[in-house]
Amino acid sequence: MSSPSKIVLTRAPLPVVAGFRWSVGEMMERFIKALAERRILGVRCPQCGYVYVPPRWRCGRCYAPPGEENIAELSGKGTLLSYTAAAVEIDGAGNFKELSSPKTLGAIKLEGAGSTIFMPLGEVKPGDLKVGMAVEVVWREETKGELADIKYFKPAKGSAEILSPKAPRRR
Amino acid sequence: MRNVAVIGCGQTKHSGKRRDVNLAEMVGDAVWNALEDAGVAPEEVDAFTVGNMQGFGGVAQPEQWLAEWIGASGKPVLRITTGGSTGASVVHGAYYAVASGLYDIAVATGWEKHSDSKEPGATTGLTHVGLGNTVNQVNCGASLRHLLSMMIVGAAAGVACYQAMYYMHRSGCRIEHLDMVAAKDRRNAAKNKYAHLQWPGCTPEDIARTELVAYPFRFGHICPASDGASALVLASEDVARKRCPKPVWIRGLAAYSDEENQIMSEGGGGIGILDASQQVGATMSAIKAYRMAGIKDPRKEIDLAELYQPFPSQELIFAERIGLFEEGKAWMALERGETDIDGRMPCDVSGGVNATNAIGSSALQRILECALQIRGKAEEHQVPKEVHHAVATAWGGATNYFAVTVLSDSL
Amino acid sequence: MPYIKEKRKETLSLEGNWEISASTTWKDSPLLQEYALGLKEKKIIGSLCPGCGKVIVPPRNICGRCHRRMDERAEVSDIGTVTCFVISAPFEKGKMKLFGVDPVDLGLVKEGERVISVYVKFDGADSNVDTELVGAKPEEVYVGMRVKAVWAENRGGKLSDLEAVEPLKE
């Protein structure tokens, strides 16, 4: 027989944070460690020929396991397939934060790769970005074997064709 | 409605830390093992059901990541989660898909990757499940001392502790019997190459030497938090008879959810169940499943049981609930050796959930183990007698979900 | 413990945090607050189901078995029976953390103390109340023990107004 006169919302009395650490598996580990040597690795499926960046334990199209022997290094140059510029960011509690300058993100198809990667873009104004332009990787000053070793991609001199049939260099 | 059979089983090794793989690789492992066992190519699978306790591993919608890793590209995928009974619900979902006539071959997979959470065991998941209730209690002025007295049970086993005490008081079962069950489970698990806590030759005295956490549970009674995945391939009668030399038929299945049965209901209210070991859902779903399977006297007709028992008391409680032993007498049957691997009613010869608990996978493994035993493929932990009918149970949710599956070697 | 251990490779991990407390709010429960207000007057209140006649303590909106709304209230006795109990291991410093703090350090419990958590069915109720048993040694507890509520001296309409239960002195 009670009805609330007002709804009260409460937060937890003490900070409660659930921490996670997701193990990445062997293929992804090789990719991350190779970043320390400024190398971007991909894997080529021997059955259907699709090249994945980062490398995967099993092809998502034909389900064959590529195996470590099919891992190959990519050139670090690619084509910008799409991009966007974000004016706001979201913090961990659901609030919008205005950015002082827009953050640009691009979908990049590296030379020889089948899949695209999503990376920050730098050294370029959002207005100068064009779909199809050639881009290349810029590494962090000191690489540590982390995903953040790839600082961003910048416009490259010279050209890199979209859907290049050039096979990745094998190491 | 069509008949449905299990035509393939697949598991990964379950252990405390599978840090050698990421989530998709681990689940993929189980699914590819199952497809290989069934002799089915991924293109031939029509539908997938997947499930786990997503909060525990910190991946909110894992089916979105997994789809192409388990061969589900271009196929319908349904995620089903029902707490601890997730594994069985996932199999039931695949059963519905095939029995309805809509699909011919369905794959069901369940998994858990606890080690991705920084806190030990299942604490991360329980934090976000129990936190709301705790905040509510604190807001209404609960003392820290009261929270502490609630936590000593929560820390050990939640309501399972109370459940065990009810059973022990009612039936005369003693803590020594819990030692016996736990020892049997870990001894059996040593013969199961996929199980987690493998202690060859474990004795009740070994378990009795472990530390008491909260009476009546010792440290050696409590199930582990495992990483692992398992999968089953289900097929319609047509496909099963053509493709599988020994299909295992799912003859009966039922699930029953009851009033939530934790220490208090969400919002702090009371629960209208005075005896936590009553578990009406278990009896109701067993009755329905047996009727569907044509089993009139489970004590005589069931050859083997895989019960969902994260705690040893639950093996005894649930075995009675589903009619395998007389009320209050399961612990006596245990003393007589009836539940041993070579006994009259072998229970959890795989080691059960007490030895291996990757939550999303554990209920599925109960059905999987029954199928292996019926086919005679359980290798080192195969029971010596012929297995014609087996029953698998699953328990979970706010200890109020129950699912029973009856498998058989004939229709 | 001599479990078989297997060695597996430990690959790199990516880390992330879910800030549960920062990103979530909960609605208060008016029913539990009503119950707490009753405790101030030394009254233990439950909700009565018009269908099966059960009295659920603390009150709830809907009966769990017959699904009817339980709008009526009923008061139950503050004397009841222990239907179940669980006894902790002796508390030690550093053994357990409650929300990140050590309960022995905090003075919540003494070193070596064993906490007896009991389910009490107060006379007239059809549900258990989870509370603590004081005034009895662990060996003395048994199912069926008659107990009486221990009320806090200064009650303010909080759950802690019902401090614990103690053995009923006949």
Write the layout of secondary structure elements.
The complex is a heterotrimer of chains A (171), B (411) and C (170).
Chain A: E1 9-10, E2 17-23, H1 26-35, E3 40-44, E4 51-52, E5 71-74, E6 77-90, E7 96-110, E8 117-120, E9 134-139, E10 150-155
Antiparallel strand pairs in A: 3-4, 3-5, 6-7, 6-9, 7-8, 9-10
Chain B: E1 4-11, H1 23-38, E2 47-51, H2 54-57, H3 62-66, E3 77-79, H4 86-99, E4 105-113, H5 123-139, H6 144-156, H7 159-171, H8 175-189, H9 204-208, E5 212-215, E6 217-218, E7 227-236, H10 237-243, E8 248-257, H11 280-293, H12 298-301, E9 304-306, H13 312-321, H14 330-335, H15 352-355, H16 359-375, E10 389-396, E11 401-408
Parallel strand pairs in B: 2-3, 2-4, 9-10
Antiparallel strand pairs in B: 1-7, 1-8, 4-7, 5-6, 8-11, 10-11
Helix pairs in contact in B: 4-16
Chain C: E1 13-19, H1 20-23, E2 26-27, H2 30-40, E3 44-48, E4 55-56, E5 72-76, E6 79-88, E7 116-122, E8 129-132, E9 146-151, E10 162-167
Antiparallel strand pairs in C: 3-4, 3-5, 6-7, 6-9, 7-8, 9-10
Global structural class of chain C? mainly beta
Q: Biggest sheet of chain A, strands in spatial order? A: 8-7-6-9-10
How many domains make up the 3D coordinates of chain A?
A: 2
- Report the average pLDDT across residues of chain A: 85
What would you note in describing this structure?
The complex is a heterotrimer of chains A (171), B (411) and C (170). Helix content of chain A is 6%, strand content 38%. Chain A is built from 1 helix and 10 strands. In chain A, the strands form 2 sheets. In chain A, strands 8-7-6-9-10 form a 5-stranded antiparallel sheet, with no helix packed on it. Chain A has a 3-stranded antiparallel sheet with strand order 4-3-5. In chain A, a hairpin with a 5-residue loop joins strand 6 (77-90) and strand 7 (96-110). The N and C termini of chain A lie far apart (76 Å). Chain B is of the alpha/beta class. Chain B is 40% helix and 17% strand. Chain B has 16 helices and 11 strands. In chain B, strand 10 (389-396) and strand 11 (401-408) form a beta hairpin. In chain B, helix 4 (86-99) crosses helix 16. Chain C has helices at 20-23, 30-40; strands at 13-19, 26-27, 44-48, 55-56, 72-76, 79-88, 116-122, 129-132, 146-151, 162-167. The longest helix of chain C has 11 residues, at 30-40. Chain C starts with 12 loop residues before the first strand and ends with a strand. Chains in contact: A-B, A-C, B-C. Chains B and C meet through helix 5, helix 6, helix 7 and strand 5 of B and strand 1, helix 2, strand 6, strand 7 and strand 8 of C.
